[in-house]
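Sequence in, structure out. Go.
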Amino acid sequence: MEKILLFSMYNQAYIQMIYMSDKGTITHRMIKVLEIKEKYFTTYCYLRNEKRTFKKINILSVDLVRHNRKGA
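Output:
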């Protein structure tokens, strides 16, 4: 997980994340990582269209967004 967050931050790459809030709400988000701290990380969240901070411990799943290219 940490490698994917770092990759997003250093390469301006989009990642998708499934996240559970402290209240137990689960969301699927498209994000771009801006800053990483020990327990938290800051992103631009495309679900809310704003800068957001998340707890690493609440991540259920994270992966790079892969684009399928068509044509020659």
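Check: Residues 2-11 form the longest helix (10 residues). The chain has a mean pLDDT of 92.
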